[in-house]
Design a protein that fits this description.
The chain has about 450 residues and is an all-alpha fold. It has 17 helices and no strands. Helix 11 packs across helix 13 (about 320-345). Residues about 435-440 have low confidence and may be disordered.
Length: about 450
C-alpha cells in the first residue's frame, strides 16, 4: 500500500485514511448497487414467467454450482496471481453476462433456462473474484485499522443493499414503453455500475504480485481446507453462518411475500429486500464509532439467535410494517456476526494463505446464500412460503444452541486482534497435538 497516499486518521474513520481503501469501497458500493438491482429484476422476471417458488430457488442454485466446480482453483489463483488482476477479469465477465440479461429482456424471451445459464456464468466470475477480493482487503489498510476497515466495508455493503433493491424496484416499475420496460432499464443501470467499478479498481496503486510461489499441487490447493479444519474458531464461524443462513434465509421467497401475502408488488419487493440492509447499516455505523473490544464470540452467538427469532416473526407477519421491522432486526443482528466472522477470517490467517482460506469461506457463504435460496424454494414448494420461513427460523435457533456447545473456543473468543486470534489458534493446535499423542501412547 502507498503510505504517501494516506490522510491523517479520524476516530471511527481510520480505514478511509488510505487512498486505495477509499477507491475500492467507492467501486464496491457502485457494483453492489447494480448487482442488487439486477437481482430484483431477475427474481421478478423469473417469477412472472413461471409463478413457481421452485424456479426462484433455481436462481440461487445457478449462482452456487460454479463455486463447487471452481472453489479450489479460485483459492489457489488468489494466492498465486495478482489479486487486482483477477478481480478485473472476473468483473469483465460480469459485464458480458449483464449484456446477456439485457438481450434476453430486449428480445422478450420467456425461457428461464437462458436466464439460469447467464446466472451460472455470473456465479463463475464470483467464485474467482470472491477469494481475491477478500484477501485483498488487508493490503489496503495498516493492520491496526483492519477491524475498522471490515466494519466500514460491511456498512458500505449494507448501504448498497438498501439502495440496490430500492433502485431495482423503482426502475422496474417506471412507466416506460417498449423494450426498456421492466428488466431492460435495470440491466442498463447495472452495466453502468460495472464500468465504474472496473475504472476504479484499475486505478488502485496496490501491487501484490503472487504470494504463493509453489506450483499447483493437491497439497498446495487443499491447504486452505486443512488450515480451516485444524482451527475450531474458523471452522465453527464458517459452519455456523452456513447452517443458520441456509435454514433461516428467506430472501428468495420475498417475491411471494410481496405479491401474495403483503400485496405490495415490485416496489414492495425492493423495500423488503432493502430492510435487512437498513438495520445492518445502523449497527455498522455504531460499530465503526464504538468497535467491539471484548466478548466477540459471546456476542456472535447472541446475535445469530436474534436473527432466527426475527426470521420467525417475519414469516408469521401479515403487516408490512411489522415485516419490515423484523427484517431490519435480522439485518442488524447479522451485521455484528459479519464483523466478527470477517475479522476472525483475515486476522487468524497468514497473508500467504488468505486466498485459499477465503475460498473455503466463499464456499460456505455460497452454500448459505445461493444454495439457501434453492432450499427456500424447495421447502416453500412443499410447505408454502410462510411455513418454510418459520421452520427455517426455528432451525436457525437450534443450530445456534448446538454450535455454542460444539465450538466452545468460538464462543469464548474475546479480542479481535491478529495476535490474540493466532495465539488462540496455536493453543488449539497444541492441544490437538497433545490429544493425538495421548491417544497414540495408550
Amino acid at each position: 500500500m502507498d503510505r504517501d497516499s494516506e490522510k491523517p486518521a479520524v476516530r471511527g474513520l481510520a480505514a478511509f485514511a488510505s487512498r486505495d481503501f477509499r477507491r475500492y469501497q467507492l467501486a464496491r458500493m457502485a457494483v453492489i448497487i447494480g448487482a442488487e438491482a439486477q437481482t430484483v429484476a431477475v427474481a421478478w422476471q423469473v417469477y412472472s414467467i413461471t409463478h413457481r417458488p421452485l424456479d426462484l430457488g433455481y436462481t440461487g442454485l445457478a449462482l452456487f454450482v460454479p463455486g463447487l466446480f471452481f472453489l479450489l482453483p479460485a483459492g489457489h489463483a488468489a494466492d498465486r496471481y495478482d489479486r487486482r488482476h483477477i478481480i478485473l477479469i472476473c468483473y469483465s465477465i460480469q459485464v458480458i453476462c449483464t449484456v446477456g440479461l439485457l438481450a434476453i429482456a430486449l428480445m422478450g424471451l420467456r425461457n428461464v433456462w437462458l436466464i439460469y445459464m447467464v446466472l451460472f456464468f455470473i456465479g463463475t466470475g464470483r467464485s474467482f473474484s470472491g477469494p481475491a477480493s477478500s484477501a485483498l482487503i488487508p493490503h489496503l489498510v495498516p493492520e491496526g485499522h483492519f477491524v475498522n476497515a471490515v466494519t466500514w466495508g460491511a456498512a458500505i455493503f449494507q448501504l448498497a443493499n438498501i439502495a440496490g433493491p430500492a433502485l431495482g424496484g423503482l426502475l422496474f416499475t417506471l412507466p416506460l414503453h417498449g423494450p426498456l420496460e421492466g428488466g431492460g432499464i435495470v440491466y442498463i443501470a447495472t452495466l453502468m455500475s460495472l464500468v465504474w467499478f472496473l475504472v476504479l479498481i484499475g486505478s488502485l496503486s496496490v501491487r501484490l504480485g503472487r504470494m504463493e510461489h509453489r506450483a499447483a499441487s493437491l497439497n498446495v490447493v487443499l491447504a486452505g481446507f486443512q488450515y480451516v479444519r485444524r482451527s475450531p474458531i474458523l471452522l465453527g464461524s464458517f459452519s455456523l453462518d452456513l447452517f443458520v443462513v441456509l435454514l433461516g434465509g428467506a430472501t428468495a421467497l420475498m417475491p411471494i411475500f410481496a405479491q401474495e401475502i403483503l400485496h405490495t408488488g415490485p416496489k414492495g419487493l425492493g423495500i423488503l429486500r432493502a430492510a435487512p440492509a437498513a438495520g445492518a447499516l445502523v449497527v455498522s455505523l455504531l460499530l465503526a464509532r464504538y468497535p467491539l473490544h471484548r466478548k466477540a464470540g459471546h456476542r456472535l452467538f447472541v446475535c445469530v439467535g436474534l436473527f432466527g427469532v426475527a426470521t420467525i416473526v417475519f414469516g408469521l407477519s401479515r403487516n408490512i410494517y411489522l415485516s419490515l421491522a423484523a427484517l431490519a432486526i435480522a439485518g442488524a443482528a447479522d451485521m455484528i456476526s459479519v464483523v466478527v466472522r470477517s475479522s476472525v477470517l483475515q486476522l487468524a490467517t497468514p497473508p500467504e494463505m488468505r486466498g485459499r482460506v477465503s475460498a473455503v469461506n466463499s464456499m460456505f457463504l455460497g452454500a448459505s446464500n445461493e444454495l439457501g435460496e434453492f432450499e427456500s424454494g424447495v421447502t416453500a414448494q412443499w410447505l408454502g412460503a410462510v411455513r418454510a420461513t418459520v421452520a427455517g427460523g426455528i432451525g436457525a435457533l437450534i443450530v445456534t444452541g448446538l454450535w455454542s456447545v460444539i465450538f466452545p473456543d468460538l464462543r469464548e473468543t474475546d479480542e479481535l486482534t491478529a495476535r490474540a486470534l493466532r495465539m488462540d489458534l496455536q493453543s488449539e493446535l497444541q492441544s490437538a497435538a497433545n490429544n493425538r499423542t495421548h491417544v497414540a501412547s495408550k
